[in-house]
Amino acid sequence: MERWKGRVALVTGASVGIGAAIARALVQQGLRVVGCARNVDKIEKLAAECQSAGYSGTLIPYKCDLSNEDEILSMFSAIKTLHKGVDVCINNAGVAHNEPLLSGLTAGWRNMIDVNVIALSICTREAYKSMKERNVDDGHIININSMGGHRVVPSADEHFYCATKYAVTALTEGLRQELREANSHIRVTCISPGIVETEFAFRHLNSDPEKAAAVYASIKCLKPEDIASAVTYVLSAPPHVQIGDVQMRPVEQVS
C-alpha cells in the first residue's frame, strides 16, 4: 500500500457500513479520501475520529446525491480543483427496495437503477477521464457488488436488486475489456460480498425490523471491516496483477 500514500481515492456511500469502513481503512493507509453521501454528518464524525487516531491520511466529506448526474459532475469538478483528480474510485453506494417484479413500484425500480447502475457508470467514466488527463496509468476502479450479482436469490423482495447487481458484474467485465483495448494499465475489480452486518437489511426491510434483525442473527455474518480488508488486499497487489472478481461470503451462508 506504500505507493498509494498521498494519492486520492473517492468512496461513494461513505457515511455508514461498508463505505465507512473502506474510507477509514484507506485513511489509515495514508490516502486522501473523498467520502461522499447524501448526508455527510456521519462522514464528518468519522473524519474527526481518523484525525484523533493519528492516521496519516485525511478524509474529506462531500455531500452528493448520486441519483443526480449534475451533482456527481460537480463533485468530480471540485475534486479536480482541490485535489487534482481521482486515482482510486470505489463505487460502493447501493440501494435496495422491496419492490417485486409482479407488484413493485416503478419509482423503486428506477431508484435502484439510478444508484446501483447509472451512478456507478458515471463515476467510473469520470474517474477514468480524471486519470487519463493526468496520465495516471496505475489507477484502480473497484465496484462493490454483491453475491446477488452472481445468483438470483429465491426472494421476490430482492429480484430487481439482483438484476442491478448482475449489471454491475457485466459492467465490470466490460470495463476491463475496454481498458485493455485502450492499452491502459488502470485496473478494475469487483468485490461481491454475501451477507454483511450493516444497516442495509434494516433499510431494505424497513417495514419489518424484526425480519431484518433475524437476517443478521441467523449466522455469523461478514463485517464491514472484512470488505475493507478485501479492498486493501486488491489495492496492494503488484501493478501487473489484475484481481477481477472477489467473491466472499460467511462460512455459514448457504447460497
TrEMBL record:
What EC identifiers does the entry list?
Answer: 1.1.1.270, 1.1.1.62
For the protein in the UniProt heading, the enzyme class is: oxidoreductase
Q: In which pathway does it act?
A: Steroid biosynthesis; estrogen biosynthesis
Q: Name one GO molecular function term.
A: estradiol 17-beta-dehydrogenase [NAD(P)+] activity
Q: Which UniProt keywords apply?
A: Oxidoreductase
Report the catalytic activity: 17beta-estradiol + NADP(+) = estrone + NADPH + H(+); 17beta-estradiol + NAD(+) = estrone + NADH + H(+); a 3beta-hydroxysteroid + NADP(+) = a 3-oxosteroid + NADPH + H(+)
Q: Which InterPro entries match?
A: NAD(P)-bd_dom_sf (IPR036291), SDR_fam (IPR002347)
Q: Which CDD domains does this entry report, sorted A to Z?
A: Mgc4172-like_SDR_c
Family statement drawn from the similarity comment of this UniProt entry: Belongs to the short-chain dehydrogenases/reductases (SDR) family.
Q: What does this protein do?
A: Catalyzes the conversion of the 17-keto group of estrone, 4- and 5-androstenes and 5-alpha-androstanes into their 17-beta-hydroxyl metabolites and the conversion of the 3-keto group of 3-, 3,17- and 3,20- diketosteroids into their 3-hydroxyl metabolites. Exhibits reductive 3-beta-hydroxysteroid dehydrogenase activity toward 5-beta-androstanes, 5-beta-pregnanes, 4-pregnenes and bile acids. May also reduce endogenous and exogenous alpha-dicarbonyl compounds and xenobiotic alicyclic ketones.
Protein name as catalogued: Dehydrogenase/reductase SDR family member 11
UniProt organism field: Mugilogobius chulae
